[in-house]
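Researcher: Structure for this, please.
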Amino acid sequence: MPYFVYRIHRYGGLEKVDALASFRDASARAKALRTSPDLPPDCAVKVVFAATDFEAEDLLTQERAPKPGIVGDE
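Model: Predicted structure, token format:
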């Protein structure tokens, strides 16, 4: 399964940048994109491990549970 590199725009837009075979390559690509002056200020770069483009996008759009913690410790 490949590692997908995505740009995530502020209002939910996903843009696939690359699909790479190793995490090391995907991580290096994501770091290069994050430091690029071409990256819009409201855009994040993420790496996700998935079987297909569809699965990667599904994983990126799922709402994650909040971290466990003490109530009132916000």
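Researcher: Any notable elements?
Model: The first strand starts at residue 3 and ends at 9. The chain has two helices and three strands.
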